[in-house]
Amino acid sequence: MNLRHAGAAFVDRHFHALTHRNYRYMWLGQCVSLIGTWMQNIGQSWLVLTLTGSPFLLGLVGAFQFTPILLFSLFAGVIVDKFPKKNILIVTQSISMLLAFTLAILVFTDTVRYSYILILALLLGLNNTFDMPTRQAFNIEIVGKEDLMNAIALNSTTFNMARIIGPSIGAVMMAWLGAGWCFLLNGISFIAVIYGITRIQAAPYVRQKKSNENMWNEIKDGLRYISRDPLLSETLLLVTVVGTLAFNFNVLIPVFTKNVLHMGETTYGTLMSCLGIGSFIGALTMSLRSKKGPRLTLSIIASLVVSGCLVLNGLSSSVLLCGFALAMTGFFNIMFSTNSNSNLQMNAKEEYRARVMSVYALVFAGSTPIGNLLAGYIADRFGANGAFLTCGILSAVLSLVIILKYKYRSGKLNQAHA
């Protein structure tokens, strides 16, 4: 009995978001679904590399998947606020399930082609354009502002626990049964999260449209709001840099495994799991410190350390060193993204939150096509090591430029008020 009370007290102190019934439904569904998502991620990357043998064409799949976010994310942010987010999520998660089943059928019937994978990646990207800002903005409706950072950190913990488990299971599935089973199990896993969402009972926030507003004016109003707030704008610029240059593992790790280490699926799964272990520890760390709230300083430090970790990845030439470097990269990547996400949601006004988070989705995930193509091109020309080094150095330089710019701007404002 004492043990039970001690466990409840620990959860209440460190994982308070789990005390919300609605959040538990969402979280438990994601625990299952995200394992399937990571199985599909590594299965798709390995399948494309096997079909084409080209790092650039692998990067092109990532570009197709994230280009819709780049093009339509701002529009999605305006639309999301006008409908109950629970209903949007049921639709988007159902579409993701159907796309996974489609890819599984193509593989099982031996009719899969590179062009089909591109089309499915594009459709998934279009679906995610609405899913991402909806999920981000839905958090505050089911946990409230006080437990928001804890919920975001727990989401990251779940995501990265799945990043450890999913690639490990996926690698075994590919080696024994083929990539099609990764896609089939991913499709089945969506049943859990869809069921969880249907059980949520929350009062939805639906923003009423003003009579003189149209979509373009609402987008411009949101962008003006962000540009006038130094905390939001500096955070989003740092997210742009890190999102573009430091999240290209779906392109670089399979290329590194195949062309540098000359290893197969099992090593690929192991390296992805190392990235996941570091990310999981980072997410758990953020959960435990969530009561302290987000800090811009933490995003700044993490962005620079991530850049250094990418350089370390580029200098590695063994499974052991690369695994360590990827674990460190994962740890600081999650510290950066969790802190930045929380900063934006907690400091944005309610009527602007979905639009702010649509910009976050735009610069974090929408920048991925550029990053994937850049990483794929450099890996084609100079190898995976060269791509890691280039991305790390560019990330460090651009982050420093943003940090110094806002430090100078802050100094000028302080002088003006003195």
Automatic annotation (TrEMBL):
Residues 1-410 form the Major facilitator superfamily (MFS) profile domain. Keywords: Cell membrane, Membrane, Transmembrane, Transmembrane helix, Transport. Its main location: membrane. The chain crosses the membrane at residues 56-80, 87-108, 175-197, 236-256, 268-288, 295-312, 318-336, 357-378, 384-404. It is a multi-pass membrane protein. InterPro entries: MFS_dom (IPR020846), MFS_trans_sf (IPR036259), TM_effector (IPR010290). This is MFS transporter. The lineage of its organism: Bacteria, Bacillati, Bacillota, Bacilli, Bacillales.
